[in-house]
Design goal:
Elements lengths: L3 H4 L10 H15 L8 H15 L1 H12 L16 H23 L3 H33 L2 H9 L4 H28 L2
């Protein structure tokens, strides 16, 4: 089975630009799209998934590790990196505050009751937005090191990239949790 880099005809590199990915996807889709006559729905779907995976820097790191190293890029039982413990605590607290605000808002049965808990809901939203900013900053710290990971990989050293991938797994999970709660708060 072809990986996303090979599927799009791109070099297996962390430092691809969004333009590189989009151009390769557009070129591959010209003949693969089902409306092109010779197109193939399955190939088209695979190309779309490859594009989505490589456009997300953290997923690109995972794919790169899968293709380049013998390390287990699907490690499941990895503990939280000590560098992320403060962020983990903040995310946990923010999610708890959001859950409490959601529960209180849902329990409020009158307009007055909802108005009284609205401040908590707004504070929870602001807290989640702040956490998402911190998560994005941590993701940026990983992506800023992509060139360094590739240089180290040339000598067979994938340890830093693997640790970054482990961190990225947590960051992605926390980002999704914060976004889910934020959407729920906004839709109340």
């Amino acid at each position: 089975m072809q990986g996303p880099f090979e599927l799009l005809g791109l070099p297996c590199s962390l430092t691809l630009s969004e333009q590189d990915i989009e151009s390769a996807w557009a070129q591959a889709m010209q003949s693969a799209h089902p409306d092109s006559g010779d197109g193939d729905e399955e190939l088209s779907a695979s190309l779309n998934e490859a594009r989505a995976g490589l456009s997300d820097p953290l997923r690109r790191l995972h794919s790169w590790l899968s293709e380049k190293s013998d390390l287990d890029s699907d490690r499941k039982n990895v503990g939280i990196d000590p560098e992320l413990m403060d962020l983990f605590a903040a995310v946990n607290e923010g999610l708890q505050q959001a859950d409490a605000a959601i529960a209180e808002t849902k329990a409020a049965s009158t307009a007055l009751g909802k108005a009284l808990v609205a401040k908590k809901a707004v504070q929870a939203q602001l807290g989640l937005q702040s956490l998402l900013g911190r998560i994005n900053q941590a993701v940026g710290e990983i992506t800023d090191r992509f060139s360094e990971f590739e240089v180290k990989a040339e000598s067979g050293d994938f340890d830093f990239a693997q640790k970054a991938s482990d961190r990225a797994r947590f960051l992605k999970k926390w980002e999704m949790q914060c976004n889910d709660r934020l959407v729920e708060l906004i839709s109340l």
